[in-house]
Design goal:
The chain is an alpha/beta fold. The protein has 18 helices and 14 strands.
Length: 393
């Protein structure tokens, strides 16, 4: 079953002005399905097949000549030189929306596109399903724990698959196929262990020294491997908030995964019941909330404006959304019972910021009652995708 993706309107608009549109994102996020749905009138070709890939690599001019009016070229990173030949075609005929490029391995695709098609292509990222997209499937999780364990990869919902079985195959394919292609990853078993250690540190400050020590690798290697996880859209680093106040704020970013189903699998959590009493449930919920808002904004074409607040005394707000004239301070609490104490720290940070910026306060929690008091909101997790864009996004 195909559901409408929130990014679709952004791709349609991009194709009205740019000669090429590049869509990247994690493996199995639905890029092929989305491209073929939005650009149904374009010929489609995938470089996944060895014979097609050989044609594109060995004779790129003839390969591209098959498509005089453009095409969708999938897995384009498998022919790294192809964008260079596209550059000449686009310069000759810059008609908008002709070429649609899609690929998963962003670490190679980005380099190829940036070198050859800078200024000629609009680049968009398709992340795993947001909650607002998940609920478009007829059979979707309604319980919080089940939602966290299932995650948001489309294939799980499209085919009604068991999440743990599919995620296990996904991780094996990612490590053994995608990561193997990188020269600076020689020990795949150690990389797999590194990935598991990162899952145990989701929603925590990045400590490369600790990660390296626990994994038995050097700190530069840990930094390089973390960059790989970022580039392939497995994790993202949430930057710390900066203010002009004379306040000592932490400088280290926070580690988050794009998909909590992946986190749960890496932690050995296979069922919603296991998650219920797990010591990292609060951290997993925090990552879910932050990644949900990140996905919503990314699929709307918004790529900046998210950070977290933490000073040297430990005062912390899980997420800060920066608007032109105000801030939204977001706390996350996995508890089901609402409490105004959820916003205690956010109120303290609001007071510290003084008159610098107007602040709205929101606590996203694990219950089902929406409460609003002036500029303060207690927002149930299942209503996050319905939230007023002026409050959350």
């Amino acid at each position: 079953m195909t559901v409408e993706r929130d990014l679709a309107p952004q791709l349609e608009r991009a194709a009205l002005s740019a000669a090429a549109v590049t869509l990247t994102g994690p493996r199995q996020s639905g890029k092929t399905t989305l491209c073929r749905a939005v650009f149904a009138d374009h010929p489609y070709v995938s470089l996944e097949a060895p014979d097609v890939r050989s044609f594109a690599v060995d004779d790129p001019r003839t390969f591209l000549a098959q498509f005089p009016r453009g095409a969708i070229i999938d897995e384009v990173q498998r022919a790294p030189d192809l964008p260079s030949y596209l550059q000449g075609l686009i310069d000759t005929d810059p008609t908008p929306g002709q070429w649609i490029l899609a690929g998963s391995q962003n670490f190679s695709l980005a380099e190829s596109v940036n070198q050859s098609l800078a200024g000629r292509t609009a680049v968009h990222h398709l992340l795993p399903l947001s909650r607002g997209e998940v609920v478009r499937f007829p059979h979707h999780p309604e319980d919080l724990n089940e939602t966290l364990v299932t995650g948001g990869y489309p294939r799980i919902f499209d085919r009604g698959l068991e999440p743990s079985e599919w995620l296990g195959s996904f991780i094996a394919t990612y490590v053994e196929r995608d990561v193997r292609t990188l020269r600076n990853v020689g020990d795949l078993s150690s990389f797999g262990r590194f990935l598991e250690l990162c899952a145990g540190r989701t929603a925590q400050l990045v400590n490369l020294s600790s990660l390296a020590g626990d994994c038995g690798i050097s700190q530069p290697t840990a930094k390089a491997w973390l960059s790989i996880l970022e580039a392939s859209f497995v994790v993202f680093l949430l930057r710390p908030f900066h203010t002009n106040l004379r306040k000592r704020l932490v400088k280290m970013p926070k580690l988050h995964f794009y998909d909590t189903g992946l986190v749960c699998y890496l932690l050995g959590i296979r069922t919603a019941e296991q998650l219920h009493s797990h010591p990292l449930r609060g951290s997993i919920f925090e990552t879910w909330v932050v990644s949900e808002i990140n996905k919503q904004r990314t699929h709307q074409g918004l790529r900046r404006g998210l950070s977290f607040y933490r000073d040297r005394s430990g005062t912390e707000v899980d997420l800060v959304i920066e608007h032109p004239e105000r801030l939204t301070l977001i706390e996350t609490r996995s508890a089901a019972t609402p409490s105004t104490s959820f916003l205690t720290t956010a109120r303290r940070v609001k007071a510290q910021l003084g008159d610098q910026r107007q602040c709205n306060l929101t606590a996203v929690y694990g219950g089902d009652q929406h409460q609003k008091r002036n500029d303060e909101h207690l927002l149930p997790w299942a209503q996050l995708h319905h939230a007023d864009p002026g409050q959350i996004r």
